[in-house]
Amino acid sequence: MYMKAGNRNRDAIWVISIIGATLLIIPIVVILYYGFVVYRSSVGFGFPVFGSISLTLITSALSAALVFLLFTPLAYELATKKHSGLESISDIPASIPHPVVGIAFLILGSPFTPTGKFLASIGISFFDSVQGIVVALAFVSAPIYIRTMQSVFSSRKRDADLYTLSLGASRMQMLYGTILPSLKRETLYAVLTSMSRGMSEFGSIAILAYYVTQYPFAGVSNASVLIYNYYGYLGPSVAVTASALMIVVSIGVLAAARFLGRTSNWRSQPGND
User: Fold this and answer.
1) Exposed, middle or buried by CB within 10 Å (0-12, 13-18, 19+), for 221?
2) What does the buried/exposed string (b/e) look like for 167-178 if buried means 16 or more CB atoms within 10 Å of the residue's CB?
3) Are the C-beta atoms of 227 and 239 separated by less than 8 Å?
4) pLDDT tens digit string along 141-176?
5) What's this model's pTM, rounded to 2 decimal places?
6) Which phi and psi angles does 128 have, rounded to 5°?
7) Which domains, ranges and CATH numbers included, belong to the chain?
8) Counting runs of H as helices and runs of E as strands, what totals does the chain give?
9) Contact (CB, 8 A) for 40 and 241
10) Exposure of 82 by Cβ count < 10 A (0-12 exposed, 13-18 middle, 19+ buried)?
């Protein structure tokens, strides 16, 4: 009976879904095969590549932490109240061409603008800096974090929240004192998903911070920029090897996020499948 039920579920939708998933995985498999087997290059495994991947991991993690700090209250507000205007604003970064994002932060940090003068006065520079990469990644990855956490917050029963508020706690105290501690796994899932998105960024970084001039990453480019340079100056073989290595790292982060998502309570509740 189980096998018959399983066979009945394999309808046209199932077949098309498998085809779609296969189309998504083929380019990844091709890069891994050609990068590690056919076009395997020692330069692709060189110190600059690992330095670039380290920079990418660190800046992506910092941007994810920044997104958590800045946008968790917004996600909670959108989950508990109707704000069509705020929802539209939170989606804007996902619809802007990312080189435009890089140009925007370049102007914000320019010493010829009031904002740039203020940032310079407190020692912050976006141009060719770790700070620049972090803020750009935070901007482009914020929408996916906000939407994920909005879904997490929406799936909760709010009886305990009403009780906490009746005791005199503020919404901010409730959010950080009771709600987030009970959603550690779900929050980490959202943070890792945001980090994974940041690791794939190219357009804004290529404009804002083509390479970093700060210690200990002086002269190091983000992985996406380095791979682009390798393709243009050293040829496809080196770029493919470096790409394959970066894919392995990216899959590792994404796999950790997916594992947390699968084992979280909100993922198994009705309406969240």
Assistant:
1) buried
2) eeeeeeebbeee
3) yes
4) 999 999 999 999 988 877 777 777 777 778 888 889
5) 0.86
6) 50, 45
7) 44-268 (1.10.3720.10)
8) 14, 0
9) yes
10) exposed
